[in-house]
Amino acid sequence: MELGRRERKKQQTRQAISDVATGLFLERGFDAVTVADVARAADVAVQTVFNHFPAKEDLFFDEVGWWTGPARAIREAPADADPVDVLETQYLQEIRERLAVGHLATWKQFVRTIEGSPALLARRRLTAEELERSLTEALDERSPDHLRNRLTAALYAAAQKVLEERLMTLLPDDASPEELDEAQRELEAAVTQVFAVLRRGLG
């Protein structure tokens, strides 16, 4: 029971630091905020921040579902499931979860913050490469056709990029709840279209 309380306290501290950091980054820009600024605003020591987040970029890219979720979904799917169907379902689930917790409301600001920082752009490229690598490995565990698996992972990463760009055009600045709902409906229609193309291409 004592260990449980300690773990809960650690998670609460980590989440509080992450929330403070996100607010500062979106308000001022990533490069204008230091780890010391985050620590001060969160009322913790700088070392405490680093205990939870090894690098400043980790404070920004704290949500890992975008790049770890696809491989996990493939590994958890039934052996006879179509990989493209699994990836489409996982992507839709991620979108719905982000809308439910309010993350889509700040999506445009999040992307603009990335685009304004060379450090975040570099980390995003590395993250995209990690997504493709981990997804390829998960697909390889199901099928020996490595070339096809590698292509599937690369096409999924491209599809994700196209859909994120689509979301940027669908979301108004300071979107109302009604506008968020409409953007979600249109994005889900785009997901269906993009994955249909992906499915036909892999035939």
From TrEMBL:
What molecular function terms (GO) are annotated for this protein? DNA-binding transcription factor activity; transcription cis-regulatory region binding
Cross-referenced Pfam families: TetR_N
Report domain HTH tetR-type positions: 11-71
Give the keywords, sorted.
DNA-binding, Transcription, Transcription regulation
Keyword Transcription regulation (UniProt): yes
Annotated DNA-binding residue span(s): 34-53
InterPro entries (alphabetical): Homeodomain-like_sf (IPR009057), HTH-type_TetR-like_transc_reg (IPR050109), HTH_TetR (IPR001647)
Name the record gives this protein: TetR family transcriptional regulator
* Organism listed in the record: Kribbella jejuensis
